[in-house]
Every structure is written in C-alpha cells, then in structure tokens.
Design goal:
- This protein is of the alpha/beta class.
- The protein has a single domain, classed as Metal-dependent hydrolases (TIM Barrel, Alpha-Beta Barrel), CATH 3.20.20.
- The chain is built from 13 helices and eight strands.
- The chain has an eight-stranded parallel sheet with strand order 1-2-3-4-5-6-7-8.
- Helix 6 links the parallel strand 4 and strand 5.
Length: about 350
C-alpha cells in the first residue's frame, strides 16, 4: 500500500549568543548550526513491496535509556533516591543487544533513575559520539533555572533533544506555565525537538501540547510511545486516539512507534497494533513516524531483538511499502538529526 508523504515543517531559527556557556563565538556558531533541523522535502519513489528495509539503510532506535550498573552507581553515577533499579541498563549491555539485533544507532533519553543528573548519559555520548544522540530531561523548577540548564546541556554537553515529563512539573501547574513556555521556545530556537511523555493518557495533556504547538510552531515535537494510546475498546479511548491523529495537523509533530509492549493489549508480536499503526501512517505519513524500543524495559518483555522484529511483523499486516518501512526504521530520525548516523 503506497501512501502520500506529507511535507515536513521547515524549521528556521535565529542564532542567539549564549556567551556564558560558550565563550568562543566561532566554535559556538559552528556547534549551534548542527542542532538546527533541516526540513528538506522528502519525495517518495516507487519501490518493490519488500517487507524489510534495504541492507544499506541504517536502523536507528528513537527511544531507549541507559543507566549506571550497580557498581557504577556506587562508584560514580548514583541513582536518584527512590529511583534505584535492579534491571540491567548499562551501555555495555545495550551495545550487545544492538549488535545482536542489527541496530546501528539510537537516541538515548535521560532516565528518571538519574533524574536531572545527566553525567552518566553524557559520558556515554562522549564515548560513542557517532552511535548515540542524547535527549536530556527538562527541569521545570519554579525558579526558571531549567532554561539555563537546558542551554548548558545542549550547547556545552551536546544534547540534541529534550524530554518534557508533565509529572515533574510543580503540583497544580502545567507545561504551559511560564517556565514550560520558556524551555519549549528555547528548544525551538536551538532546533532541538521536544518529546512528550503522556504516561497517564494523552487527553490529560492534549490542550497543553496543542497550545505549545500553536504558539511555538518552530519547535519540533516527538510523541513518545504513540502518546500512550492503546487500541480503543471504548468511546473514551476512541476519542483519545482520534485526538492523536488530529495532532497531525501540526506539521512539527512526529510520533514514536515505540514501547509497543506498553500500548498493546496482546503479547509479542503485538498484532493488535496493526490497525492503529496503519491509521498513524495515513495521518502523519511514514516520514513523521519512527520506531523505538524502550530499552531496557523491553528486554524482559520480548527481548531487544524482538522489539525490532515486531515492527516488521506488524508492517506485514498493514502492509507497508519498503520505502515506508525504511523511513520508520531509521530514515525519519536520521533526517531530523542532520549530521548524525550518516548513510554509507
């Protein structure tokens, strides 16, 4: 089934000086330019109806986490109090899983285990600069310090995306408060996508997302894990999914087809997702959809390799063209993060 791709938003942001974090303007401008998203037109071509991406296409995981091993946590990278874990999530284990599954690169999302201490993830990004891109965690502190922290993480530490977790906002406040708007706007200026984690349901946060997208159209948005919309079984769930599809009217909104075990009502290979997957592709276009595993949480569910294989199995049910599957498995996110995971 061939589908028409919708054009990507053309994001063009003015350059600004941040001398506190970048004392050398020449190197600063060079660095900032790599964060700005080039939204080149994506043209479709007629291709054979194969069900796996061509071998030359890099497979990129749009959503996973790493955290310290127990020894690393004891020695250098402590867990945030109350967020300790026994689930293995160290980078060596991740690299083994990626090698086995044939995954070439990934976007690492700062885990709650370390909360606003990004030192562990930063060390991984520094060690493997061509394999990983970092997504930092927005700090919505009421004093507004999170804006400077965001600038620091992007301009100094090289993060290229930021996650908004609405459940970290002060009680009674929303992501559209003064601090939230300042961080969302700054992300747009720097060409940094904002990911939303709507774990308790899209409808709780829909008005905030719509307001931010309307007010700041230059900020690219990533909806984690299908915005936690499961295959609808009642009117409320049907409405939530319709509202997710309706967000496609904002050209800057992308959807992560990720953490399938969280949104499916069935065991691997999560075949009940085929219908909503098809509708997501129809509404957004494959060039605004990207696969993600949610490592390491996915490992005890279906294994890391299974997380990748599930997408092809679901795609067989839709079905998708090889071109569409190529976008979803790596081309979309590679296009977003220009200069990373260069195709060979």
């Amino acid at each position: 089934m061939a589908m028409r791709f919708k054009p990507l938003l053309s994001v063009s942001a003015p350059l600004h000086h941040f001398n506190y974090y970048c004392p050398q303007p020449i190197s600063y401008f060079s660095k900032e330019s790599q964060f700005r998203i080039s939204a080149a037109k994506m043209a479709t071509t007629s291709e054979p109806q194969t069900k796996t991406p061509p071998s030359q296409t890099k497979i990129i995981d749009s959503h996973l986490h790493v955290w310290a091993s127990p020894q690393e946590a004891a020695d250098k990278y402590p867990y945030f109090p109350g967020q300790e874990t026994t689930l293995p999530g160290n980078v060596d284990f991740l690299l083994e899983c990626m090698a086995e599954a044939g995954v070439d690169g990934a976007l690492i999302v700062q885990p709650i285990n370390h909360k606003f201490d990004h030192s562990l993830v930063t060390s991984v990004l520094n060690k493997y600069p061509t394999k990983f891109v970092g997504c930092c965690l927005a700090n919505p502190a009421e004093d507004g310090s999170g804006v400077k922290q965001l600038e620091h993480l992007i301009l100094k530490d090289g993060y290229r995306a930021v996650r908004f977790n609405p459940y970290l906002w002060p009680s009674g406040q929303q992501m559209t408060n003064e601090v939230g708007k300042a961080m969302f706007s700054k992300a747009g200026e720097l060409g940094v996508p904002v990911g939303f984690m709507c774990m308790k349901g899209l409808r709780l946060h829909l008005s905030e997302i719509e307001k931010l997208c309307t007010e700041f159209p230059s900020t690219v948005v990533l909806l984690d894990h299908l915005a936690f919309c499961k295959p609808p079984t009642n009117d409320d769930e049907s409405l939530a999914f319709s509202e997710l599809l309706n967000l496609s009217r904002f050209p800057q909104v992308y959807v992560k087809f990720s953490a399938l075990f969280r949104v499916s009502r069935m065991p691997f290979p999560y075949q009940d997702l085929s219908n909503i997957f098809s509708q997501i592709i129809s509404s957004f276009g494959a060039n605004r959809v990207m696969w993600g595993s949610d490592f390491p949480f996915v490992v005890p569910e279906c294994g890391y390799k299974g997380a990748k294989e599930a997408v092809s199995l679901i795609a067989n049910q839709v079905p998708l063209s090889s071109s569409e599957l190529e976008w979803i498995m790596g081309k979309t996110i590679t296009q977003l993060f220009q200069g990373q995971w260069i195709q060979s």
